[in-house]
Amino acid sequence: MIKIKGLSKSFHNNTIFSDLNLEIAAGEIVAIIGPSGAGKSTLLRCLNLLETPDQGSIEFNQVAYQAGAKISQTQLTKFRQQTTMVFQQFNLFRQKTVLENVLEGLLVVKKLSRSEAEKIALEKLTLVGLVDHADYYPGQLSGGQKQRVGIARALAMNSSTLLLDEPTSALDSELVGEVLATLRQVVLQNPNQTVVLISHELAFVQQVATRVLFFDQGGILEEGTPEQIFKNPKNERTQQFLSRFNQQVFS
Amino acid sequence: MAKVFDPQLVLRDIPKLLAYLPETLLITIISLVIGLILGLGIAMVKIHRVPVLDRLLAIFVSFTRGTPILVQLYVTYYGIPIVLQYANYYWGTHLNVNNVPGLLFVLVTFSLNEAAYNSENIRGALQAVDAGEIEAATALGETQWQILRRIIVPEAFVIALPTLGNALISLMKNTSLAFVASVVEMTARGQIIAGNDYRYFEVYLALAIIYWGLTIITEQLIRLVEKRITRFQQQQAPQPAKKVNFNLLKHPASVVKRGETLD
Ligand SMILES: Nc1ncnc2c1ncn2[C@@H]1O[C@H](COP(=O)(O)OP(=O)(O)OP(=O)(O)O)[C@@H](O)[C@H]1O
Ligand SMILES: [Mg+2]
Prior knowledge:
The complex is a heterodimer. By secondary structure, chain A is α/β, with parallel strands linked by helices. Helices cover 40% and strands 24% of the residues of chain A. Chain A has 9 helices and 10 strands. In chain A, the strands form 2 sheets. Chain A has a 6-stranded mixed sheet with strand order 6-7-8-3-9-10, with helices on both faces. Chain B is mostly helical. Chain B contains 9 helices and no strands. The chains are: A alpha/beta, B mainly alpha. At the A-B interface, helix 2, strand 6, helix 3, helix 4 and helix 6 of A face helix 6 and helix 7 of B. The complex binds adenosine-5'-triphosphate and magnesium ion. Adenosine-5'-triphosphate binds at residues 11, 16, 36-42 of chain A. Adenosine-5'-triphosphate (ATP) binds next to helix 1 of chain A.
């Protein structure tokens, strides 16, 4: 359960969004689509405070953040443990092996014992099909494998919400499939896992999302089921965006 | 003709000089450690553009890099007592101006010199650390201190190491100037030996051989460290000898929580 109330963010004088309200129920798979530069990433990055909102509040089941209010390190760590993020550029720790990448948060943040942590890490690496690469360094992996490690690292934290910011857009087209397959499997296997996903892979969005938000001009212009948004968009800008997108796909 | 050059003397002098190797290493290591810590501090001030302080430190760095270390040693040697005299005069302290240990002048000078020379290198290395990895650690919930220790410093160290290694070697050779402050390390000891038997060439040749050997050993050590900490850059797949304990995976079925199979 995520409650976003009156959220605003600007960079210097450039307002990205203001007074944004959004509620996401547990287990929902929410896809955010919209043109480049609309502020989708900024919104997602506010959810784990990689960006600091100027105004408003973000509430998870157990912990809330109020813009402008002081937050202790303990609260901040707790807040960040509500979510885990998969990054467009993978952002793996290059000096750590695949296994150490997945262990990092378990040992340092969750403070699990080595054996507990390894058990979880190896499970997640099995899930993404990379357990036999546990001793590799990121530099020895393909882009698709790197991103699957990124997914394992995120899943290992077992947080209630998974944040995915264009997880396949840095990949060569022939590698996109394996990562989407892994994600589809992750999503299907964990009905309780809330997912907030930014993606330009509209076919994938259509398959997995329970709700689609069209984000543009500093706010959510339209939302609905994938069926509603893709087949029957109401908003003119959504229509434009989707038709431009379809042209690109079919050209 | 008496022996113009006596190789036996060189061999005799080497162990006598090596008896003072601990002094040389002590000065080197203490100055290196203090220098790196101060250098890190200067780098942080520069990165965060701390007002006033960063201007003052920029002047300090420029001054240190723009003056010979021998001159700096004399400046500290004659300067610290003057500072102490002023302190005694204005604050009524009773610091002993004539009894400052020579080692202090040497450590102060070399540490500051090391800090000035390394600060730029450290700053560059810190700023070259991948911002994406810092974000990933932040998103996991690590504190800034954990990120500094676990991500930033190890990565910056890899970037800075070649330059730091060269600085270490210069520092080690520069310790031969410590005699200026009447500190007896290897070179000063050599001067004393030569003063007794007037065999200057043999002593300085012995010293040259020792410093050369030290430099070679240090270079090899740095290379070893470098090899170890850049393992992650290797291209070939890791050796099959796995450190992974696959017994932990006895129940992989527990991973698949419901519904779907893995393919
Ligand atoms: N740290 C920052 N400082 C200043 N401006 C920023 C910063 N981050 C993002 N912006 C600006 O905010 C706007 C929204 O960026 P954001 O990355 O959220 O867009 P997006 O919808 O994710 O786009 P894309 O589809 O290209 O990823 C852009 O104009 C961007 O230039
Ligand atoms: Mg983006």
